[in-house]
Write a structure and sequence with these properties.
alpha+beta; Beta-lactamase; 2 domains; 322 residues; binds glutamine; Beta-lactam/transpept-like; two-stranded antiparallel sheet; 13 helices; five-stranded antiparallel β-sheet
């Protein structure tokens, strides 16, 4: 539908304008030098409903790298190609309450199985499980899945990849540890190449809103009318997003926003809003996907203004799954 016939658009613009001022409370990620170049005042949103209704506002069209949002997709792809039991033998489903790049629990809990696929240790392991022998083939399987969902071939931002490759000392340490404990199904450099390239896949808010929408509909693409991945994979993925998707702020996010979401340090937040049963008329009753971009991030690595905007929308539209 044409966004102009949708009254929410007017107040969405006002909300984006309001929350943009809060971008000053955070800053762009600096540990990946190329991410520092982003404009910290940017804030954009895209909401897509299953009938194709779209609301777009602010810097919705800006491209950014997926970073940790890619962890959702590599988990789905690994489950699709290897089967859920195989993947869960190598990565657990438990939240940690630790920062995303934490190494501490790997040694604390023998035999060093990563706690979940949404923290780096788990995600690097999952990347190594993607199908194919080479890093290229593994990435290809991920790109095919993304293309099926967003309808266009994803591109990798080589500058961001190279920038992180040179500074990925902690991820390298995680990968070496995982190699030693036998959880990594690739050599360290190859696993890092897959992981860091998947993090460097470029998207905009519309792309991640679509993925959020497909997750909301349990793997079914309501616009293309095609089941992209099975319901049981979608359920597992959403439960991980809810419990671990916003890193060590996931508890507060569940309490105050109450939706499965996944953030990345580049400032993207992908949210999945399942259909809701209500007697009164409410926006997006049949669920929606929400993509937000705001590169100024907080101490946890989540978009400062993006989370505030999302909280406002979730409260106004009564979106919490609880
Ligand atoms: N590529 C980033 C890293 O591994 C992704 C982290 C994130 O988005 N939280 O450090």
């Amino acid at each position: 539908k044409d966004q102009t016939d949708y009254q929410e658009m007017d107040y969405m613009d006002a909300w984006v304008r309001h929350y943009r001022s809060f971008t000053a409370e955070g800053q762009c990620a600096t540990y990946i030098p190329a991410l520092e170049k982003a404009d910290p005042t940017q804030l954009g949103i895209c909401v897509i409903g299953p009938d194709g209704t779209v609301i777009k506002s602010g810097d919705w069209e800006a491209t950014f790298t997926m970073q940790s949002i890619s962890k959702v997709l590599s988990f789905i792809a690994a489950c699709l190609h290897r089967g859920i039991p195989y993947v869960l033998e190598r990565v657990d489903l438990e939240p940690t309450g630790d920062p995303f790049n934490s190494i501490i629990r790997l040694e604390m809990h023998k035999p060093g199985k990563p706690f979940n696929p949404m923290i780096n240790a788990g995600a690097i392991t999952v990347s190594s499980l993607l199908p194919g022998e080479s890093p290229q083939k593994k990435l290809e399987s991920l790109c095919i899945l993304i293309e099926k969902m967003v309808g266009k071939r994803p591109t990798i931002n080589e500058e961001v990849f190279r920038s992180e490759w040179q500074t990925a000392h902690r991820n390298r340490a995680l990968a070496y540890y995982l190699k030693e404990t036998g959880f990594l199904e690739l050599e360290v450099d190859q696993a890092l190449e897959v992981y860091l390239k998947q993090c460097s896949i470029e998207v905009n808010t519309e792309d991640i809103a679509l993925i959020g929408l497909i997750l909301a509909h349990d793997g079914y693409h309501p616009i293309r009318k095609e089941q992209i991945f099975p319901k049981r994979v979608a359920r597992l993925t959403k439960s991980l997003m809810l419990t671990c998707g916003m890193y060590n702020a996931s508890g507060k996010f569940a309490a105050f926003i109450g939706l499965p979401a996944k953030s990345g340090v580049s400032g993207g937040v992908m949210t999945s809003v399942p259909p809701r049963v209500r007697t009164e008329e409410i926006p997006f009753k049949d669920g929606c996907g929400i993509g937000i971009y705001g590169p100024s991030i907080d101490e946890y690595g989540n978009s400062v203004a993006g989370v505030m905007l999302l909280k406002h929308i979730a409260n106004s539209w009564d979106l919490s799954i609880f």
